[in-house]
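Hi support team,

I'm opening this ticket because the web form for multi-chain structure prediction keeps timing out on my end. I have pasted the exact lines I submitted so you can reproduce it. The total is 1247 residues across two entries, so I didn't expect it to be a heavy job. Is there a limit I'm missing, or should I split the entries? Thanks in advance, R.K.
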Amino acid sequence: MEYQSTSTLLSWMVFTPLLGAVAILLAMAFRGTLRLEGKWMDDFARVVGVASMTAVVLMGIALYLGFDGKSTAVQFIHHFVWIREYNIEYFLGVDGVSITMVLLTAAVGFVGMLASVPWWGKLDDHHHPHFSKRRVPGYMVLFLLLQTGIMGTFCALDFFMFYMFWELMLLPMYFLIGIWGAPTRTEADGRVRGGPYAAIKFFLYTLAGSVLMLLAMIALYYTSGPATLVDGTPTQHTFNLLYLARMGQQGLFAGAAPILGMAFSKVVFVGLFIAFSIKVPMFPFHTWLPDAHVDAPTPISVILAGILLKTGAYGILRFNFSILPEAANWAAYGIAVFGAINIVYAAFVCMAQKDLKKLIAYSSVSHMGFCLLGFAAMTPQAMSGAVFVMVAHGIISPMLFLIAGVVYDRAHTRDINGFGGLASKLPEYAGITGLAFMASLGLPGLAGFVGEVLVFLGAFGSAIAGFKVLVMVSVVAVIITAAYYLWTIHRMFLGPLNEKWAGLWDMNWRERFTLYPLAVLTVLFGFYPMPLFDLMNPTLGWLVETVSRVGNIL
Amino acid sequence: MELHPFPYLFLIPLFPLLGAVVNGLFGARLQRRMGKNAVHALAIAMPWASFAVAATAFATLAGLSGESAVHQSLWPWFSIGQFNADMAFSMDRLSGVMTLIVTFVGSLIHVYSTGYMHDEQSYWRFFAYLNLFMFAMLVLVLGDSFLTMFVGWEGVGLCSYLLISFWYKDSKNAAAGMKAFVVNRVGDAGFLIGLALLIWALFPENLTGLSFREVQEVVTNPAVRDRLLSSEVFGVGLVSLICVLFFVGATGKSAQIPLYVWLPDAMAGPTPVSALIHAATMVTAGVYMVARLNFLFALSPAAMTVVATVGALTAIFAATIGLFQYDIKKVLAYSTVSQLGFMFMAVGVGAYWVGIFHLMTHAFFKACLFLGAGSVIMGCHHEQDMRHMGGLSKLMPVTAITYLLACFAIAGFPFFSGFFSKDEILWKVFDTGNLLLPGGGKLLWLLGALAAVCTSFYMFRSYYLTFSGAYRGHGYPHESPRSVTFVLSILGILSVVGGYVGLPILWGLPNWFEHWLEPVFEPSAPFILSAGGTHATEWTLMLASVGIALAGFLAARWLYKGAANPVPARLLSSPNPALRFVHRLVFNKYYVDEAYQAAFVRKSLDLSRVLYRFDQGVIDFIVNACGTVSRFFSAIQGWIDYRLVDGMVNGVATLMVTGGRVLKVTQTGRIQSYVYGIMGGAIALVVAAWWLY
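Hello R.K., no limit was hit. The queue was backed up. Here is the completed structure from your submission:
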């Protein structure tokens, strides 16, 4: 009778956005009776959206205050039998790692929502209507649905539920990019690009990974040993992730019958890893990301970079490392090699970019490489560093995309070379851009540095000697990253003002409401990251210890 | 080592940070509403306040035993397993000296800046950056652990970037700032790898944290030291590799070969910045770091050799470039690179206190020179080319006198501050027993001596070109405001007397400076060897030093005084190809910038383009190809589905319909035709039965 319910807070956090979405849908259905027409309907949808996300943030604060950071146990459990015939349970809970992601989701979701409303500032929409004024109720419904999907993914502790939430993320994202993103265009080289293309690419790519995850889920389920449901009913197999992890750590999957002559755990590991690494995204599965970012509306890029990518990295920890530790040991060096490729390769690709959003998108690829490198090293420092990178990147990359949005909303272009000298015209914007870029390039004292340096220093101490070489290669990215960010600042902000942009105006309050909280967090976690480490260290320490112990036995 | 809690230490960096935040966020409004005085009142008060706190801390320190440090731990920064670093500051005797230099010279330069930047629009921004720099530099100096120091280390790099590109509307300035930051990052990458190596070498030795104190305690344990010295990584001695990697960091920050290229370009920044950051304080961080890690560097003769050799090569290399520059700030920039080389020679041979001593005297006289140059530039209406100056000694007397005093100091004239430190460096290099070079330090001494001749020559060249003869520029030069001359006077005096704290023991006088720093460098003392030079040698070398200074001075005086000597012009226009080649080579700084541009910058850009094309043309192509192939197959399947599968279904239906239509013909409704049919059928059956059986 383990893991009894202790709280419904997580359920509320997961489903409050869904309730908001339902409220909007109901209002749409009865808008005739309610006299919610046109602008009123739009504003109603926005208010519901902002209110839902505010509620989630407040619940997130309660979650943080109520969480016992010293314990490695799963907390805030909400657990009951859902579909008894298939041993599927409703099981939500957070440990030290997932709580950081839950809090990040709440914060970034809130910021993304603020960026989705056209309030508190001038919007220049002469040429084509701003996304925040098009089909607003639909946008809000999908946005809230997306939040439920992401939040659920981080809280679910039942494989089936996880899979369901994982798929739930896809659909709203598809429509949000496809409908509210950039319209279809033909590029100079004849390729057809735009929101619909990017949306389909994103959807199909992730779905392809999901198929592998589905197979892995079925394989794990039927290989898992007897367990009990939460009400004590004994079962033959289980979807319970904590049971699966325990079985995996006891060597159940390592000893399972091979699939097509290949070790069971390795096959399942690879299947799961591909599914997650597409989301991370890992080289060579990363090309959906630049397309999706370039053509998504600003808040969706914020969500995408800030939290959606983290579901992939989180999945690798929750599934690959926890459930299949011996295969994780087997794959560690390979993962690290791909991590290093991510870091260096994407950094170089960044330098060739002319589109600001594309540059930021590739920089995300580069930074997420640190997570892979850190996970694979399996030292406590590197592991904590990697999770810290997830949080830091979750704060910094939304800033970067918001920054790209600020200039795009005004100039309707993102061509870096087309700007010049903006600092004299938009000093505040130049300042906040400088801060965000510095944070992203890992300036000590800002959040980006803490994670990166821990991954570097931690990975260097891995038991596998090759990691030293990988770290040395990856350190090159420190230089390249500085080069491309400074070069971007140079081309956009410095030098003589390009007279074409003499009519631009500085930041408005909406942009301040979204950017400044993130900037404060960046500085805060740069100088005082311990609150986060206090949350995650016990859980990660336990995980590292377990995984390496299993690796030594098997 | 004893830690003495000092709860006000955090104020030293905090004051300038406050100034930076206030001026950075509200400075524009402050300046508009209350004028520039409000901006600089705050900005100047902050570093002076830091200086006051620093002096108190220093006094406290002086009352403690030699190995003690005043210390303050603010909050835990990282704590993961053995990996502990606090946000903590500590001031031992070494960082105490550094703090005093930084806060004192820094505060003076803030005062100077009120005059120099007076007409600047973004006055507030300048002072915000300058205060931010002070904060970062003080964190660097006072940082208790490698990582805290690294915050300051990169922080000063950021401020340097911001201040070099302060006049960002000119693309050239902005590019110079970018270059400085990126080149520094190359060094920082080395620093990080060195740190990683060090940490993981010490983890098995029960290292409990990353503070300098803890690392030093572990390393100075003889058993650990022996293990460290006997271990190798990548086929190289572990300690040597660690030290060399840290030194790579130092070459970036302190502008040594091969990473010195950013410093001359950094002169694009306002002149007070060049004085503060690119002469007196930030660029000396590398020297400070090597001195701080003396317990490590002294263990590896190989690393010491690398440090000293790079220092000597940089000293002579930069000095030769300085010979032919016309931009007054460029002369001083190359001179700074060269002087930093001297400091590295000192710390490279284990004469750590001498390195720090020269760092201090250099801070005085180089700040004086830069600020003097700034005063000249202001007086000549933003002219920096010395060919368009001249005759300023009468028009700008204070500037001229202080500049001359500083020239005597840097050239190493006896009884001027630079003499004591530079002579000591040359002697220590000559007498070292630690280098792995043939002849010990003799070769490096020779390079250093040559560099010293060049130094003396180009400094007096710049003095005579600027101040003697007749004025050759435009407009009417004027002496600078009081805020400028006041600061110049103080630094001019210090250029003379600043060296008296470290008088040569050879003269039988007390050397307070060495004595003060001795406890800090105690862990390395047993490893520093002397070649056994006698007093007679030392006296001889000292005389040689005087000769060197005089030689350079006399040559410059002969060639450039009053712009009267025709020799320089004749040499410059000489048709002799060998002469022209040498001049062009040196004048163009040996084409190092061009070589780097081609070898690193272009190549990285090319690589980035190639990789992007690969990304789009291969990886993304495969993804899209998967889509296209799927569509192709689905088209075929669609065809099959439509034509074959569905075709069969439709075929059956068609068969029925056409069959029906054909058979319909038989449904005539006439009895006769049915009877014919029945009969025909019967006959057919009979015939068939007969034929078959």
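A quick check on our side: The mean pLDDT of chain B is 90. Let us know if the file doesn't open in your viewer.
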